[in-house]
């Protein structure tokens, strides 16, 4: 048993108005067939039937169209009612508007076929040009509402498609905004870690040494290094805060670190690592006049900086070597430090440094590797090696 949903309010109003209008026309004696057809109450049968199917014009448009067609045919055998014809046109319109897509395509063609067939039959039967008027009437109650339904449905579908596109555009914009915020937060985290971690690591190491060793000279030297690194770290923090505050202004951005500052970075590492027995050496094989993109220089500088910081935190006594080599296609950055157990104070590590280096290289579509390897010397000692390959434009470097 088919259970139809509750009728829509507008459908109830259309049904009631059509039924009351048809009864009023019947009471006034206004009919479409003149004196022909079944007299009396017979005209109310098709009227009641088609007014009832108006209630399901949205929920069951195909069933409503079938019953309405039968009611219209039955109405032709009575005195006829204009209300029945008017409600039939509304049901044809509703069948196209609320029916399935296939029904919306077939009904207009079906009404055209019915109109042409009826017109040809009328011409054959009456053999008079007046038969064309019957074709016009049939087209008015079939083709016209079907075409109107197609136009309204296309407009509704276009509006729905535009709404969906707007929602998708909004969703994509929100996704882009979220990704941009996430990328900016990751960039800020890398910058903050790279700028401050080096100084804080030196402060942690030397403050631990000052507390653990009962020697006035060692304590004084440690405090001097601590002060130097705290002042430098504070300056770096102020620079980062200035960058964040000035992000929306039209001012020139602060200069990003470049490889020209490697000498100062190495000198600072030598100062911080002297108490740990670390020696730092720079092998710059890039050649003279090597010009690199700013993004490559900054990434290389930060990789060296973080590698030196990790060496200060974890490496035992020995030599930390920084090597730079430039080819036509890439800049190779390699930092090798002693690997093994380290006596004395150590600064804790978070593991974010390796993640930041890997992210910097990935942003440039380069290659990155870090981990313990066996050195090429005769003793086969273990070293911790960081190696990054940063692509550059062919015209950026020199061979």
Task: Give a concise summary.
With 399 residues, the chain is α+β, with helices and mostly antiparallel strands.
Q: How many strands appear in the DSSP assignment?
A: 5
Q: Assign the CATH class of the largest domain.
A: Alpha Beta
Shape: rod-shaped
**Helix vs. strand class:** alpha+beta
Helix content: 55-70%
Number of helices, where a helix is a run of at least 4 consecutive DSSP H or I residues: 11
CATH topology of the largest domain: Heat Shock Protein 90
**Average residue pLDDT:** 81
User: Sheet bearing the most strands, described?
Assistant: 5 strands, mixed
In the CATH hierarchy, the architecture of the largest domain is 2-Layer Sandwich
Classified in CATH, the superfamily of the largest domain is Histidine kinase-like ATPase, C-terminal domain
What does the radius of gyration come to? 44 Å
Estimate nothing, just give the exact number of structural domains. Answer: 2
The end-to-end distance, rounded to whole angstroms, is: 85 Å
Taken in chain order, the helices and strands follow as: HHHHHHHHHEHEEHEE
Work out the strand percent. Answer: 5-15%
Low-confidence stretches: 250-254, 395-399
**Strand order in the sheet with the most strands:** 1-2-3-5-4
């Amino acid at each position: 048993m088919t259970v139809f949903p509750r009728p829509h309010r507008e459908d109830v109003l259309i049904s009631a108005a059509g039924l009351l209008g048809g009864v009023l026309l019947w009471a006034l004696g206004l009919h479409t067939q003149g004196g022909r057809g079944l007299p009396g109450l017979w005209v109310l049968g098709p009227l009641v039937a088609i007014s009832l199917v108006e209630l399901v014009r949205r929920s069951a448009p195909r069933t409503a169209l079938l019953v309405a067609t039968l009611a219209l045919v039955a109405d032709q055998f009575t005195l006829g009612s204009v209300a029945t014809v008017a409600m039939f046109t509304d049901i044809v319109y509703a069948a196209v508007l609320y029916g399935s897509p296939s029904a919306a395509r077939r009904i207009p063609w079906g009404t055209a076929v019915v109109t042409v067939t009826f017109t040809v039959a009328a011409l054959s039967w009456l053999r008079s040009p007046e038969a064309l008027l019957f074709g016009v009437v049939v087209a008015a109650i079939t083709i016209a509402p079907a075409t109107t339904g197609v136009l309204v449905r296309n407009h509704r579908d276009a509006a729905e498609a535009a709404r969906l596109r707007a929602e998708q555009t909004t969703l994509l914009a929100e996704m882009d905004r979220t990704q941009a915020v996430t990328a900016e937060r990751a960039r800020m985290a890398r910058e903050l870690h790279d700028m401050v971690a080096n100084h804080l690591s030196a402060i942690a190491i030397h403050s631990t040494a000052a507390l653990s060793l009962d020697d006035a000279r060692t304590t004084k030297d440690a405090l001097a290094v601590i002060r130097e690194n705290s002042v430098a770290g504070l300056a770096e923090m102020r620079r980062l805060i200035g960058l964040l505050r000035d992000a929306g202004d039209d001012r020139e951005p602060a200069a990003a670190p470049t490889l020209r500052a490697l000498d100062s970075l190495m000198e600072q590492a030598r100062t911080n690592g002297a108490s740990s027995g670390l020696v730092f050496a720079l092998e710059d094989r890039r050649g003279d006049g090597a010009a690199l993109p700013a993004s490559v220089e900054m990434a290389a500088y930060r990789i060296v900086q973080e590698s030196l910081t990790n060496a200060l935190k974890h490496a035992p006594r020995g030599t930390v070597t920084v090597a730079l080599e430039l080819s036509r296609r890439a800049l190779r950055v390699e930092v090798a430090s002693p690997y093994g157990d380290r006596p004395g104070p150590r600064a804790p590590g978070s593991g974010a440094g390796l993640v930041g280096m890997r992210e910097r290289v990935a942003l440039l579509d380069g290659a990155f590797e870090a981990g313990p390897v066996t050195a090429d010397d005769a003793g086969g000692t273990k070293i911790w090696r960081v190696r990054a390959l940063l692509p550059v434009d062919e015209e950026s470097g020199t061979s």
